[in-house]
Amino acid sequence: MHTIIHRLNHRRFPSTEPKQAFRSPHYDCMDQSGALKLVVYVPGVDASGVEITTLGPDLFVTARKTHHVRANWPALHLESVQRDYQLKLRLGLGFDYEALQASVTRGVLTIVLPKKQLASASLPLRQRQVA
After folding, report:
1. What is the mean pLDDT of the chain?
2. FRET label pair with 14: which of 41, 46, 76, 121, CA 20 to 30 Å apart?
3. What CATH code is carried by the domain that includes residue 104?
4. pLDDT band at 6 (very low <50, low <70, confident <90, very high)
5. CA nearest 84: which of 40, 29, 44, 38?
6. Is residue 86 part of a domain?
7. Is the residue at 85 inside a domain?
8. Following DSSP, what letter does each residue of 60-78 receive, concatenated?
9. Has residue 6 been placed in a domain?
């Protein structure tokens, strides 16, 4: 009798894809009346390991864990658990990135990003006939 052997994960050459150095954290986004509140869950991270940068309409949050070197401890796939966190969000230009406020408490990073006040918001809107 003939048998057919399927090799699903067989690769002829080793993978050349780079391993991800960061994990994507879970987060919540809440739209408030004058600000945007982001709650990012980064367990194992303290305030000194958080870096928040902006580039145009993008917000980048990098949270690095404190890595402990254990003597006489065999590594059992701890690489994936010990990876740091990185979050990339495109929020737009309607926020005041200079007035950003952030705090870390027990592995929960809270970012409050105030909205920009539009200069035309104080002027009344005029109706205009277009057709």
Report:
1. 78
2. 76
3. 2.60.40.790
4. very low
5. 44
6. yes
7. yes
8. EEEE-PPPPPPTT---SS-
9. no
